[in-house]
Structures are given as structure tokens and as C-alpha cells.
């Protein structure tokens, strides 16, 4: 952090607002192609971890996609 290299951080206060909800996963699944099915299965795997989170998150936080969105912006 003290190297002098420009740094941008997006904390959990940001990424915990970018959630994929159960109904979002179902909409992805309805696309009905192999990529959408793979994404839905990955999200199905992670969703229970977030639903049981002590902070009571209603969906899966999208940490990495937030980073990619910032890079593309």
C-alpha cells in the first residue's frame, strides 16, 4: 500500500451489494445453453454459503465480477 503504485480497492461494502439472487440463477438456467448451465451450477454451489452468512446476505456476492466491471469501465 505504501509503494506509490496507484491502487484502487473495492471493499466488501461494495461487493456485498452486487448479489446474484436465487431468482437470478433460475433466469440464467432458463437460457438453456451449456455455458448458462455451467454458470447456474457454479452459482448453485456458492449460494448456500452466502445464504447462511452471519450478515444474512440474500444472495451470492459477486466479488470478482465487480473487479472485472471496474477494469472494463
UniProtKB/TrEMBL annotation:
Q: Is the keyword DNA damage assigned to this protein?
A: no
Q: Which UniProt keywords apply?
A: Glycosidase, Hydrolase
One GO CC term of this entry? cytosol
The UniProt entry, under InterPro entries, shows: Inosine/uridine_hydrolase_dom, IUNH, Ribo_hydro-like
- Transmembrane stretches, start-end: none
Question: For this chain's UniProt record, which GO biological process terms are given?
Answer: purine nucleoside catabolic process
User: Pfam families, from UniProt?
Assistant: IU_nuc_hydro
The Inosine/uridine-preferring nucleoside hydrolase domain extends over 1-72
What are this entry's molecular-function GO terms?
A: purine nucleosidase activity
Q: What name does UniProt use for this protein?
A: Pyrimidine-specific ribonucleoside hydrolase RihA
Which organism does this sequence originate in? Answer: Serratia marcescens
Amino acid at each position: 500500500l505504501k509503494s506509490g503504485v496507484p491502487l484502487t480497492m473495492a471493499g466488501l461494502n461494495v461487493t456485498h451489494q452486487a448479489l446474484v439472487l436465487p431468482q437470478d440463477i433460475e433466469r440464467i438456467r432458463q437460457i438453456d445453453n451449456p455455458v448458462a448451465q455451467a454458470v447456474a451450477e457454479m452459482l448453485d454451489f456458492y449460494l448456500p454459503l452466502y445464504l447462511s452468512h452471519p450478515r444474512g446476505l440474500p444472495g451470492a456476492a459477486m466479488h470478482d465480477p465487480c473487479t472485472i466491471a471496474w477494469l472494463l469501465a
